[in-house]
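Input record (one chain):
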Amino acid sequence: MPFSLLDVIALSCFFVCWVGYTAFARKKAKTTNCVARCLHQHRIHWMYEVVSRDIRVGDAALLANLERNIAFFASSTLLILAGVLTLFAQVERLESVIESIPYAEFPNHVMIQLKLSLLALIFVMSFFQFTWSMRQYGFVNVMIGACPFDDSGDNDNLQRYAEQMAIVQDQAAHSYNYGLRSYYFSIAALCWFFHPLIFMLASLFVVYTLYNREFNSKAVHAITLGQQYLEHERASKNLSPASLIKKNANSEDK
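The corresponding structure, as predicted from the sequence alone:
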C-alpha cells in the first residue's frame, strides 16, 4: 500500500485547511471588515464615479492593468503545469534527488506520482480561476462601455446599474483571489515530497498567513478607514448645496 496512515492524515489535513478556510473566510467576510468586504465597497464607489464621468479612459487603463496581472498568473500557471507534467517522465531522477535530502522520507515511486498529480490538479484549478477572472473583467469592460453618462448624479436606475457593475468586478476579484490561494497551497503540497509532518505544518502555516493578510494586516485597516472616508465624502456630496439645488429643480420640473 503506497499510502501510510501519516500520509492519509496529512492529505486530509491539507484539504480540510483549504476547503475549511475558504468557507470560513467567505462567511466571516459577511460580518467582519477584511480585504474582500472593504474592496467591494471601494468598487461600488468606483462604479458610482464611472457613471458620473463622461471620459473613462483612466478607468479603462485601471481595468487593463488588473487584467494584465491576471494574464501573467494565467500564463505562468500553464508553464508551471507543463513543468509538473514533465516530471512524470523523470520520477527516478526525482527519487534520487529526494534521497539526497537529509531527514526526507524515503521516496516511493507510486507516492511521487500521486504527489505530482496533486500539484497538477492544484494548478489546473488555478488556471480555471484565473481565466474565469479575466473573462469577468471583460464583462465589466462591456458594461462600462454600455453605461450612459449621468451628469446629474440623481439617476437611481444608473446608480443601481453601477452597483451591478461592482458585483461583476467583485466576482472577478474573488476568482483571482481563489487562483492566488491555490499558489499558496501548492507550496504546502510541495512539502509533501519531504515528509507528511512538514506537509501538515505547511498547510496550517498557509492558513495562518492567509488569515493574517486578509483580516489583520495593516493594509486591511487602511482600506477600512479609506472606505469610511469615502462614505463620509459621498454623504457630504449628496447633501451639498449644489446637489440640493439640482434635486429641488428636478422635483419642480416633475
